[in-house]
Specification:
Elements: E1 4-11, E2 20-33, E3 37-43, H1 55-65, E4 70-73, H2 79-82, H3 102-111, E5 117-119, H4 160-174, E6 177-179, E7 185-187, E8 196-199, H5 211-228, E9 233-239, H6 245-251, E10 265-274, H7 279-308, E11 313-323, H8 338-355, E12 360-363, H9 388-399, E13 405-412, E14 416-423, E15 426-433, E16 439-442, E17 451-455, E18 465-468, E19 473-476, E20 481-485
Parallel strand pairs: 3-4, 3-12, 4-5, 5-8, 8-9, 9-10, 10-11, 11-12
Antiparallel strand pairs: 1-2, 1-16, 2-13, 6-7, 13-14, 14-15, 15-20, 16-19, 17-18, 17-20
Helix pairs in contact: 1-3, 4-5, 7-8, 8-9
Length: about 475
């Protein structure tokens, strides 16, 4: 009986709750061995540029996380920060220019030094697509534009032009430079190790791709990069809407690809949606209901992957929540406890994906700010301090990871989610309070002296509070994410 513990959860008397919650953890019964890595994505935007007041603290926070497989995405709202060749070759000149792209990219690579990364320069130069007229490029590199990715058909139907662009871009950072379309040498001197390259982003949205058109582009990009770096691995699709089985059925079928093109990893995204007006009393239901729907989709996607390409890995590399106010006035006031419900949402989705064997589980995103999805930020864009979403990821990353054994865990009660892990560093219990009500957790004497670390509404933009369990129980505040370690 020493390996079987019963933990009792009693609602706070002041709330008038008569319900008694209970949790059973059987440390002798392993369900599965985790292969999941908790990580995040970094999206290129002006607050991360050198000279920004939050540049230094943001990259310091990224380095402090120490995550593997962080995803780096220069993308469409900022063409000058994301596209290295903004105009087609003309008059025996090319427009290759990394002067605005390099600083942030190098800062990212320095902050993640010693850890494998995934790079995704997601935006194809607009001139490589057929459009009625040339696509305008804003003079100000920091200006947000949402119509850069125009056109639906590449001007080169073989997609070789697109593939060669990415091979040169990859070579700039890994091979010391490249020869451009006119045979001119461009020297960078960079020899970074970039083990994974993700081919485009949310391809079901940008350029109105179909599974067939995207697969042609993927094959062209992968084929070109492999010529200069045969050992590189690739991530495909990055779907915005994973509830489209036809994409997985087509892309994961090796018969639909050129001979020799690898299917190393696929990716897709999940965001819960809501509004400030809902507040946490409603978000506690809508966010987690949407998460449950997404986890059902993952289960279906996994059945397709295992049938067509079982060796292909999976990264869910954008996980978060988006408020409808993100598309409204830039001065919308996001309530403080929103960051806690969004952090608890990530923890809940993380646990669901671990149980399904997903390889990489990425929170989105390091920095958002008004005009660029502020509700998705992990950093307070006013102060540069990490918010609760960041601290939840750090709590998970520091305590749980690949190789951990998930043990039999059952819970009776509403609002509480728990999972026991047996790790190389000791035993852990992940606790998630999905509700906006506090819960008093009564513990057996065997847990006296264990550590309890928690992110909740009281911690604000500060790291998890950690203390030794010295009394008969602990309190889980509303929307708390905590880890008991012993």
């Amino acid at each position: 009986m020493k390996k079987r513990w019963l933990l009792f959860f009693l609602a706070i008397p002041a709330l008038g709750q008569a319900q008694k919650d209970s949790l059973v953890v059987d440390w002798g019964q392993t369900q599965l061995i985790s292969k999941s890595v908790a990580t995040l994505q970094v999206v290129v935007n002006p607050p991360l540029r050198r000279g920004s007041p939050i540049h230094d603290p943001s990259f310091a926070a990224l380095a402090a996380l120490g995550c593997d497989y962080v995803r780096y995405v220069p993308w469409l709202p900022y063409p000058k920060l994301a596209v290295a060749e903004l105009r087609p070759p003309a008059d025996r000149q090319t427009s290759w220019d990394f002067s605005l792209i390099d600083p942030m990219t190098l800062d990212f690579l320095q902050a993640t030094k010693g850890h494998p990364v995934i790079l995704n320069f997601s935006t194809i130069p607009a001139w490589m697509y057929k459009t009625e007229k040339p696509v305008a490029i804003p003079v100000n590199a920091d200006s947000v534009v949402w119509d850069y990715t125009q056109g639906t058909a590449p001007r080169d139907s073989t997609c070789a032009e697109i593939g060669n662009y990415y091979a040169r871009l990859y070579s700039w950072y890994t091979k010391g430079g490249f020869k451009d379309e006119l045979g001119k040498e461009h020297t960078s001197g960079y020899h970074y190790d970039i083990p994974y390259w993700e081919v485009l982003n949310e391809v079901d949205f940008e350029h109105s791709n179909t599974p067939e058109t995207y697969t042609r582009i993927y094959d062209a990009v992968v084929g070109s990069i492999r010529k200069v770096s045969p050992e590189t691995k690739f991530v495909g699709m990055a779907l915005a809407y994973p509830d489209r089985p036809e994409w997985f059925e087509y892309f994961l079928n090796p018969a639909n690809h050129r001979p020799g093109i690898p299917l190393d990893m696929i990716s897709y995204h999940f965001y819960a949606s809501g509004s400030i007006q809902q507040g946490t009393p409603v978000m506690q239901y809508t966010f987690f209901d949407q998460a449950d729907g997404f986890l059902k989709e993952v289960k279906f996607i996994e059945s397709i992957r295992k049938r067509l390409s079982p060796s292909t890995r999976t990264t869910v590399d954008e996980i978060g929540s988006i408020l409808s106010s993100d598309n409204g006035p830039s001065d919308a006031n996001i309530p403080d406890d929103y960051w806690n419900v969004s952090g608890a949402l990530y923890a809940y989705v993380y646990l669901g994906l671990v149980r399904m064997g997903i390889d990489l589980i990425g929170e989105s995103q390091l920095v958002g700010y008004p005009t660029q999805f502020p509700s998705v930020s992990m950093i307070n864009w006013k102060t540069g301090k990490p918010n609760a979403r960041y601290w939840v990821l750090k709590l998970i990353h520091d305590n749980l990871g690949p190789g951990d054994a998930l043990v039999n865990t059952s819970v009776v009660g509403d609002g509480l989610v728990a999972q026991g892990f047996s790790t190389a560093r000791g035993k852990r219990v992940l606790l998630i309070n999905r509700s906006n009500r506090p819960i008093m957790l009564a513990l057996p004497s065997a847990l006296q002296g264990a550590r309890f670390s928690v992110v909740d509404v009281s911690t604000g933009d500060n790291e998890a509070v950690s203390s030794a369990i010295g009394g008969p129980g602990i309190e889980l505040k509303p929307l708390a994410v905590g880890v008991i370690s012993f």
